[in-house]
Amino acid sequence: MTALKFSGPVLGEQGEEVRDLYVVDGRSTFEPQPGAETAGRGWIVPGLVDAHNHLGLEDGGAVGEEETLAQALADRDTGALLLRDCGSPADTRWVQEREDLPRLIRAGRHIARTKRYIRNYAHEVEPADLPAYVVQEARRGDGWVKLVGDWISRDAGDLAPSFPAEAFAAAIEAAHAEGAKVTAHCFGRDVLQGLLDAGIDCLEHGTGLSVDQVEQMATQGVALVPTVLQTDKFPVFADQGREKFPAYADTMETLHARRREALMAAHEAGVALYVGSDGGGTGRHGYLWEEVRAMHEMGMPAPDVVAAASWRAREWLGFSGLEEGAEADFVVLDRDPRADLSVLAEPERVVLRGSVVAAR
Ligand SMILES: [Zn+2]
């Protein structure tokens, strides 16, 4: 098999280094390979990571394999080569058998309170059954379990925690006993302290976080995936609910108004932030670059967002950057993404498992 050669600044935690990177048998090497075929030049960035997306899920619930395939290809062709699925009712394990599709880390199916989430998405359970479902999904998934931490309560007329704090704590303990990490959908404030005190591993959205809580997250090593494209829709959710649930509408408006403050407090506290498009969960696939831009517009410096979308997220999820011998998953860009994030929307080359899977 002919080796491929890519030349240019290779980005990673150490900054950039202009190198010739060779691909042999799906691996990256910096050992010169005689006869290698030049396959691309530009800024070479370790494969991008969509840290919150949903394969096999659309507005109405699970979709079939054909649509799931289109979602995975849309992500792949824009350089998202590692997907952290944050809950899907579809069995997408077959994606992991396909060499041409992004690497996938699944969280099984969302677990929510009865009638307290988008219809057809989640296992909907009562508190007493929560640990058993957590164990089931921990065994079905790839090391993560996804809880719906809060959602509108029609009884309360407002956003409210899905379960009592003790039930969340029992769920987290059950997942950890299975060797799985736990993340939770959290829009509001009230759910957060219980989850953090119970040792949750990651929070999704996190618009209700206080300064004290982000400091606790940094201390405990709890990650945050803010999904700015998703929280951008809060005014729409507020308007949809205002007539029947005015308190909920006010809550969503307030959370929207302070989401920048929450995100930047987390960034400044040193919380590990990752980039999640929420594709599939009412968002579309293939738009990780839009989430990168949205996080930058919230105030995160471009180099930090690029790192969060690439090598830092890869390391968090157990994958490599572009070290000697690492999996050859990367994108080649014709401009430095740290200087111009828009280039992430149009990679020159997308290389997955050592093969050029997309080229402009
Ligand atoms: Zn989601």
What would you note in describing this structure?
The structure is a single chain. This protein is an alpha/beta fold. The protein is 31% helix and 26% strand. The chain contains 12 helices and 21 strands. A 4-stranded mixed beta sheet has the order 3-2-1-4, with no helix packed on it. A 4-stranded antiparallel beta sheet has the order 5-19-20-21, with no helix packed on it. Helix 5 packs parallel to helix 9. The longest helix is centred in the first third of the chain and has 13 residues. It starts with a strand and ends with a strand. The model has no long low-confidence stretch (mean pLDDT 97). Zinc ion (ZN) binds next to loops. The site of zinc ion has 5 residues, from loops.
Secondary-structure topology with pairs:
Blueprint (H helix, E strand, L loop, with lengths): L3 E9 L2 E10 L2 E3 L7 E5 L1 E4 L1 E6 L3 E2 L2 E2 L2 H13 L2 E6 L17 E3 L5 E3 L9 E3 L4 H11 L3 E5 L1 E4 L4 E4 L3 H13 L3 E6 L5 H6 L4 E4 L5 H10 L2 E3 L2 H4 L2 H8 L4 H12 L1 H11 L18 H10 L4 H8 L1 H6 L13 E4 L15 E4 L2 E5 L1
Parallel strand pairs: 1-4, 6-9, 9-10, 11-12, 13-16, 16-17, 17-18
Antiparallel strand pairs: 1-2, 2-3, 5-19, 7-8, 14-15, 19-20, 20-21
